[in-house]
Amino acid sequence: MDLCFNFSRCHRSEQLLIYSYNSPQPEQPKPTYMHQFPSSIWHTSDPEKACLLFYFSDSQANTDAWIKPKLSNLLPYWNNGLNHVIISFADRWSDTNPPSQSIGMASILATNLRTTTYRPHFDISIPLPRLNLDVPSELGSLKPFERKYFLTFKGTRYLSREGNFRSSATFRNMHNGVDVIVATTCKHETNDKLLRWQPWRGSKCDNDQVIFDSYDFLELLNSTFGLVPAGRSPASYRMLEVLSVGMIPILIVENYLRPFNSLIQWQHCLLQFSTSEMHLILPTLRKMPRVEVEARQRYCQQVFDKFLKDDNILMNSVIRSLKDRFVGRLPNFVAQHTI
Description:
Blueprint: E1 18-20, E2 52-56, H1 71-74, E3 84-88, H2 93-96, E4 107-110, E5 124-125, E6 149-156, H3 169-172, E7 180-185, H4 189-197, H5 205-213, E8 223-229, H6 238-244, E9 248-252, E10 271-273, H7 281-287, H8 290-308, H9 311-324
Parallel strand pairs: 1-2, 2-3, 3-4, 4-5, 6-7, 6-8, 8-9, 9-10
Helix pairs in contact: 8-9
């Protein structure tokens, strides 16, 4: 922040004012909680009044996602990225975003940030939005050991590239059909294309489909723990789904910066395993003391209610994370307590 930020732009208002070059376009390709930003109290149409300048790279009219814009030509107030924030919900940075070497002094607000490459107190990890809002509200009040299942997952089994660990025996064999349900399906656009050329990759897909069809998604939310395996991206839509019903997330992911890490002490809520540690998941969870499971669930519920519950709260959490970078430097932006 000392080298790559102009603090003088931010002394002009008691409110954090942000100019946006473009709209989030919430339906392209999936809705996001940033759609309300243009009508929020933080938005200004005057770039001279703005402390920050937003660029929604996913919604830029890149008809060919592999042709990257040169930001200095695209954004008239670029100034080598000073006070700019590039926002992305893309699975892979290379899909829709500018080359990393071209971002200058801009910070990144994205769902796909890596612990090894992000810049602490400068870049911000944000969550993917909830896609399934029709979940039984009463599940949130159930205590961990009052639930039907111990650990559950229902989702796609990727046969190649990112997320293909879901095809491994270690992942799929966690399923015992009693209190641990891991139901996967090979039915996916990229899998379908691959199987036309390499049908051998579909080994046991038929068996998996039988299990997948045997369980209702909403029923599997009645579980103490919920698997949140990485897919095409380290971030997962399942993260907020699991938290919304009082389940404790069990992440399977490599090199992932968890969302709002300056606001949330995730170690008190979820557990995270690498793909090489999947064999440890069930033994670890089975041995966890009841009092710890209950404490984790309580903290997870507090986190969800305070930072993640709906679009308004998520948008506020984004702004809080942005303000958190200014602590001690801008007295007009008061720091807010974490939990």
